[in-house]
Amino acid sequence: MSKGVAITGMGIISAIGDNVAENYNALIEGRKGISRISKIDTVHKDAIMVGEIEASNQELVNQLGLPSENNYCRTAMLGAIAAKQSIADAKISDIKKYKTGLISATSVGGMDMTEKYFYEYLEDKELQKYIEGHHAGDSTQKIAEQLGIEQSLVTTISTACSSAANSIMFGARLIKSGKLDRVVVGGTDCLSKFTINGFKTLMILSDTYNTPFDENRKGLNLGEAAAFLVLESDAVVKAENKKVLAYVKGYGNANDAYHQTASSENGDGATLAMEKALKVGGLQPKDIDYINAHGTATGNNDLSEGRAIIRVFGEDLPEFSSTKAYTGHTLAAAGAIEAVYAVLALQNNVIYPNLNFKTQMKEFDITPQTVLKEKELDTVLSNSLGFGGNCSTVIFSKQA
Amino acid sequence: MSKLKQELKEKIIEQLNLEDVSIEEIGDDDALFGDGLGLDSIDALELIVMLDKDYGIKLSDPKEGRKIFESIEVMANYIAANRTK
Amino acid sequence: MKKVYIRGVGSISSQKTLDNKEFLDEITGYNDTVISVVNPVYKDYIPPAAARRMAKGVKMGVVASKVALEDAGLENVDAIITGTGMGCVVDSEKFVSAIIDNNEEFLTPTSFIQSTHNTVGGQIALGLGCKGYNFTYVHASNSFESAMLDAKMQLEFDEASSILIGGVDELGAHTVKIHRLIDHIKPVEVSPANLLDSGTKGAVFSEGANFFVLGNAKKENTYAELVAVETFNDLPEENLLEAVKKFLIDNNVLIEDIDVLIQGNNGDVVYDRYYNSLSQGIFSKTQQIYYKHLCGEFNTASSFGVWLGAKILKTQQVPDIVALNDVKTSKLETILLYNQYRGENHSFTLLRKC
Predict the structure, then answer these.
(1) Looking at the structure, do residues C254 and C111 belong to the same domain, yes or no?
(2) Claim to verify: residue C108 and residue C245 sit in the same structural domain
(3) CB of A10 closer than 8 Å to CB of A85
(4) Are C205 and C243 members of one domain?
(5) DSSP for A301-368?
(6) Count of domains forming chain B
(7) What's the whole-model pTM score?
(8) C-beta atoms of A118 and C174 within 8 A
(9) What does the pLDDT profile of chain C (354 residues) look like in tens digits?
(10) Could you tell me if C202 and C237 lie in one domain?
């Protein structure tokens, strides 16, 4: 049993940088990674904008040193890169020294290869190696292999846009219960025609830069990213004299049970998730110094989430902002990249601006933080809300 | 016009998998959403695709759809006035 | 820490398993390489308006969960945790092929929404109005075990008192077609009786939904205690024996205490060796059972194994059809389950009579 859940390492690759430092610099410099799509040949290329990672698949293969006959999908490669960074950041040289698991999250999995070779599989034997790589768990198995995690607890969570927040939550519980001494948690999703067209059918893709919490928001930009964090028990931290970046203090998941894709008008699920997370962390709303909102910039999300925030925080509302304007909505990875951003906020005592905000929403009078702000932060709350009514909150803190 | 209305009813039943509903049960003025036929926002998105595919009408805002899909009558009038195929 | 019990079950499989009053009384035979479930009359459980957009996986999950809840005498639960290897694969296939065939035009949202992995868990919650914790694990043959482990931890620490868990997967035509190409599906038809002697690669592909209500209070109709579950991303054959021994030691159980071993043999000539090393090794004198000749192979087929174990402990009967060896135990109290798929994602589960 471990009281604290320490974060001792982080890794990330996103549209605003290939590592933690690059991501942080972009965040404080207000540099967004949203552009026209270049790596996927889609008929919608002039109608959407995305948060694309610069590296091509071949460059990712080279970076990981994979043999040419590998069957890694882009999701697996991005995940492996971010996860390896997190292990290096945590200065782990012998992964087998402690009981170490891996909880990854993905919604796309190997869909990028499946949609490319769907019919070709039937003709071309060379391509059939990717068939086994389609299912979501395969990318996680490959990340585990890249990290040298063997004969251990390795699993994958897929709850749409809250997936990675949920992998942090499950990982934290595994540490607290003593089932694992150390666990690598996070998520990874690459861009795909599948998700581009899927969100297109829901008519929630913006044709320009996404504008979270703005009255005239037009929808989201999809993004691709991967981020992983190393969680360790008090015992490992002590034995290894580990530098702790922050702690996972509270967490909560709840279901809106309202609609298959949309959030309820009053944000019931999000309200419950935040309340649960505060309770687990033994915190009051006034203890939260910054809210990293889900803020996808869809009409529905920002209204529902904003109302939920008001319900929970009332008068004690701290600064809040969404970083989706930087990275796009990275689906199953979002909760993990925003966890990295939350930890960086704590380490540097900064609140990131909610880019692209111009006009106050009519339905309520709360306004996101729009310029970079320095403030002593102890506790940051991060929301991740998804399809199927899946609502998650994770709270990060400087103290255990 | 009555042919178009009949056609719309058939398409709605088929497209939206309304297995237990017959054409006769859908009145021209019945509300399609809410208390009427009970369609929801996902159905509205399905119908927007149908407008595009079958009648060459493109809608960019799902909210527009809700007004057009008020009833078979309203829908048929809108299609008759705006169809490009 | 509280103990965790299986309080209700609901199973849709290639056998008639949905009626909890029966226990494999009548076996559905086949001679095939792919088998589907015995479909219930879905309309008896789901109103047509709600069912009209549901994928088969969702329907199976909704019905199996309703039966499990009824069996447990509950109307709602504190949490819903689902395992699925592929999610609603028919809709995924439909959406991908529509993207390609129509060059990204005239696509509709329904199949995209249904293809999201957590659509089964989400729609069960929607149906029940359950606002509690809702997770979906998608890790191949450990999807269901991950759900079971998560639920078990919450119940042990009393974070919840009743949790609905389940494993669900559906067959998809294109998925079947491409998995034939890579020898994951048997090349020639096989009957249940001949599955293990088929001498061919691959498995008989199938589908199903097995749902359970777990709780941390023992009630009259409780099936069994869920003592432990442990998963391994990989496990070389030479380390299997050591791993099972350690699992038993960790749970204060001796090899002799195991009354029945339930194994996930699927007749794959390449990968059944894992099971054989246990059945011919330390458990050679233990009563052994298998089940994939009845339910086929799918990512969450091991949930059928847990259903079988729970039924055996509750009814104190072992149907002849599942016997893997001739050993007959004198008591039915402790059951060990072992499963893996294609040498990856191994799991041990321990059930005890209560």
Answers:
(1) no
(2) no
(3) yes
(4) no
(5) HHHHHHHHHHHHHGGG--EEE--HHHH-B-GGGHHHHHHHHHHHHHHHTEE---TT--S--SS-----
(6) 1
(7) 0.98
(8) yes
(9) 999 999 999 999 999 999 999 999 999 999 999 999 999 999 999 998 889 999 999 999 999 999 999 999 999 999 999 999 999 999 999 999 999 999 999 999 999 999 999 999 999 999 999 999 999 999 999 999 999 999 999 999 999 999 999 999 999 999 999 999 999 999 999 999 999 999 999 999 999 999 999 999 999 899 999 999 999 999 999 999 999 999 999 999 999 999 999 999 999 999 999 999 999 999 999 999 999 999 999 999 999 999 999 999 999 999 999 999 999 999 999 999 999 999 999 999 999 999
(10) no
Mutate to test the interface with A, among B33, B42, B58 (most CBs of A within 10 A): B42
C120 and C175 share one domain = yes
Which residue matches tokens 């290329």? A45
Do C197 and C158 lie in one domain? The reply is yes
Q: Chain C partners of B44 at a C-beta cutoff of 8 Å?
A: none
Give B20's contacts in chain C (Cβ within 8 Å). Answer: 48-49
pLDDT tens, position by position, A305-333: 999 999 999 988 999 999 999 999 999 99
Which chain C residues touch A102 with a CB distance below 8 Å? 233
Q: A-C interface: how many C-beta pairs under 8 angstroms?
A: 198
Chains sharing 3 or more CB pairs under 8 A with chain A: B, C
* A203/B45 Cβ within 8 A: yes
A44 is known as an active-site residue? no
Contact: B41, A201; criterion CB under 8 Å: no
Q: Number of Cβ pairs closer than 8 Å across B and C? A: 24
Please list every residue in chain A whose beta carbon sits closer than 8 Å to the beta carbon of residue C167.
none
Interior angle at CA A76, CA A164 and CA A81, nearest 5: 85
Task: Assess if residue C221 is contained within a domain.
Answer: no
- Asked if A190 is an active-site residue, the reply is no
In the listed set C188, C215, C242, which residue is the last one of a domain according to the structure? C215
Measured between CB atoms, which of C48, C53, C108 is closest to B20? Answer: C48
Q: What is the pLDDT of residue C34?
A: 98
C193, C215, C237: which is the final residue of a domain? C215
CATH number at residue C209: 3.40.47.10
Domain with C237, as residue range(s), is 227-352
Q: Does C109 touch chain B (CB under 8 A)?
A: yes
| Residues in chain A closer than 8 A to B41 (CB atoms) | 259, 262
Distance from CA of C326 to the nearest CA of A (A): 32
Check whether residue C233 and residue C204 sit in a common domain. Answer: no
Q: Which of B11, B13, B19 to mutate to test the interface with C (most CBs of C within 10 A)?
A: B19
Report DSSP letters for C146-163, one per residue: HHHHHHHHHHHTTS-SEE
The fraction of chain C above a pLDDT of 70, given in percent, is 100
Mean pLDDT of all residues in A246-274: 92
* Domains present along chain A, CATH in parentheses: 5-240 (3.40.47.10), 249-397 (3.40.47.10)
Does C172 fall in a domain?
A: yes
Residue B21 belongs to domain with CATH number = 1.10.1200.10
Q: Does the annotation count A329 as an active-site position?
A: yes
The tokens for C28 are: 């559905």
Q: What is the DSSP string of A362-388?
A: SS-------S-EE---SEEEEEEEEGG
Which of C352, C142, C87 has its CA nearest to residue C264?
C142
| Phi-psi sector, A70: left (phi>0), alpha (psi -120 to 50), beta | beta
Say if the ipTM goes beyond 0.95. yes
Contact: C109, B42; criterion CB under 8 Å: yes
Number of domain units in chain C: 2
Q: What whole-number distance in Å separates Cα of residue A158 and Cα of residue C224?
A: 29
> Is residue A57 helix, strand or coil?
helix
Q: Which residues pair with C346 in a beta bridge?
A: C232
Q: Residue A109 is which amino acid?
A: G
| C130 and C258 share one domain | no
Tell me which chains share at least 3 CB pairs under 8 Å with chain B: A, C
Question: pLDDT for A339-372, tens place per residue?
Answer: 999 999 999 999 999 999 999 999 999 999 999 9
* C282 Cβ under 8 Å from any chain B Cβ: no
- Residue B48 domain boundaries: 2-82
